[in-house]
Design brief:
The protein is mainly alpha-helical. The protein has a single domain, classed as AhpD-like (Up-down Bundle), CATH 1.20.1290.10. It is built from ten helices and no strands. The radius of gyration is 16 Å and the shape is globular. The two termini are 30 Å apart. The relative contact order is 0.18. It catalyses: N(6)-[(R)-dihydrolipoyl]-L-lysyl-[lipoyl-carrier protein] + a hydroperoxide = N(6)-[(R)-lipoyl]-L-lysyl-[lipoyl-carrier protein] + an alcohol + H2O. GO terms for molecular function: disulfide oxidoreductase activity; hydroperoxide reductase activity; peroxiredoxin activity. It comes from Kitasatospora gansuensis.
Length: 178
């Protein structure tokens, strides 16, 4: 199983990450589509070959083709949006925030899955990419759609754990090559 492989690959000093992988993915109460869409979009956002290699096949098996593509689309479009909107938010000149972005993001309007699921994946990716403006926007849409805070929190926990696992495994790979 993918989780077992990831946990086995983690060094002893990362025992907490092993436990958290089991908790946030292995024992998640999220419905399968929400869980594996979040896992896949976050795995892509980490940019970690080790994390993607283990989790993508499971996500692909657990998700419908439409959900699989939508989760990948969430990672792709948020990779762009998070950079753009984080920048407009951080710039001292607030004129940029009022300018039309002019970037294509059609998938947000028609993701091919339930809008709330797609928004959850966008929220989790935005957590990895550190865009406060996008986090606020997607959290607001989720709350208006009736998504409980516990579900939103579960997605950000998945994002946090996968980002930490990715950083640890990728760093260990570099250290092993020294």
């Amino acid at each position: 199983m993918a989780l077992d492989e990831l946990k086995a690959a983690l060094p002893d000093y990362a025992k907490d990450l092993k436990l958290n992988l089991s908790a946030v993915i292995g024992n998640s109460e999220l419905p399968a589509q929400q869980l594996w869409g979040t896992v896949l979009s976050c795995a892509m956002a980490t940019r970690s070959p080790a994390v993607l290699r283990e989790l993508e096949p499971v996500a692909k098996a657990e998700l419908s083709p439409a959900a699989y593509n939508a989760a990948k689309g969430a990672a792709a479009v948020m990779g762009m949006n998070n950079v753009y909107y984080r920048t407009t938010h951080l710039l001292s000149d607030k004129e940029y925030s009022g300018m039309r972005a002019g970037l294509r993001m059609n998938i947000i309007g028609t993701p091919g899955v339930e809008k709330a699921d797609f928004e959850l994946w966008c929220f989790a990716v935005s957590a990895i990419n550190g865009c406060g403006q996008c986090l606020d926007s997607h959290e607001g849409v989720l709350r208006k759609a009736g998504v409980d805070r516990e579900v939103i929190q579960a997605s950000v926990k998945i994002a946090a754990v996968l980002q930490a696992v990715a950083a640890t495994l990728d760093s260990e790979a570099v250290l092993a090559a020294l």
